[in-house]
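Notes from the 1:1 (GR / supervisor)

We went over the backlog. Supervisor wanted to see one worked example end to end before approving the batch request, so GR pasted a single chain during the call. The sequence is below; no edits were made to it. Supervisor asked that the structure be written out right there so they could see what the output format looks like.
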Amino acid sequence: MLSYSEYLVLKKLHPKENIYIETLVFDIPECNDVICQWNGYELKSIFGIDAPNVREHLAEGQWDIVEDYVRKSKFWEDNWDYPHVYVEAFEKAGISLKNQRGSTFWMPQKSLKAAITNNRFGYDVKRWLRPFYAKRYIEKLSTRDKIFDGSSDDTFTGQFLGLMHKNSGIEFVEDEIRAAFAFPEFTDNRNLEMKRNLENSNSVAIHARRGDMLHSNGYCYKYGYFKRATSFIKKNVENPLFVFFCDPESVEWSKKNLKIFGLDIKKDRIRFADWNKGTESYKDMQLMGSCKHNIITFSSFGWWGTFFNQNPNKITCSPNVYVNTTHTF
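Structure output shown during the call:
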């Protein structure tokens, strides 16, 4: 969804140019454990989005060359360094493209600095220093100039996923995004009832994504992030209803570890939305958007819940200072 939003930016900047999406990664599910568990490319089946796909504008032989080259590269074993691989693949097929990402693609890796800070003390030091480095850090991670590409070159942009960041410029296409991502109405009683409950209470979505993202979000559970977020909610929201949205494997874990979230089953109002699975999983995002407030980890799925939340006084919480939420804990 973030990638398609970047496509909408380019379409608006270049209304007379041919802009294409590409969905090749969904044809290579073995490349990543996260992608393996998805249901393929779903924007068409859920939202009816039928954007022009570059695959459809290449001859069959050309596309075979591209897919074969990318698959054989196994870029997922090289720090997910895919942009130059894609550009090289298209070059093999006779199509020259500028690589907007550059010749290398940086992804966080293990380092001495990470090892030093990957503990409770290091985490707390970073959190205490957050007010002093936040602005500079947000500017450093900004991909706004890359997403809002005004050049007329034939370009492969890849995906920056930067529109979920602060100061991203998303307001430029916010109306287009909301029009594109119009969820189908619920028709089943269970989701209809939950939606009514969320809209008629001070509901707080907790997106406890563990599973495939635990390597990135593990510190949220170890160092008190959820406790700080729920404590803030309790101080500022009257009679909150906390509703958990989890990957299927994390539901029972979350029920058994409510203390990690700063919650008590005897004192707090708690619900679990745990029935939307498989091709119905997107309905969790739809329900999160119906909540009055949101607590998320570093996850674009959870962030979209904050985006679709229309409460003008919403409190949205994340553990990352650069993610576009109202509060960071």
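Supervisor's comment: The domain at 183-328 is CATH 3.40.50 (Rossmann fold).
Batch request approved.
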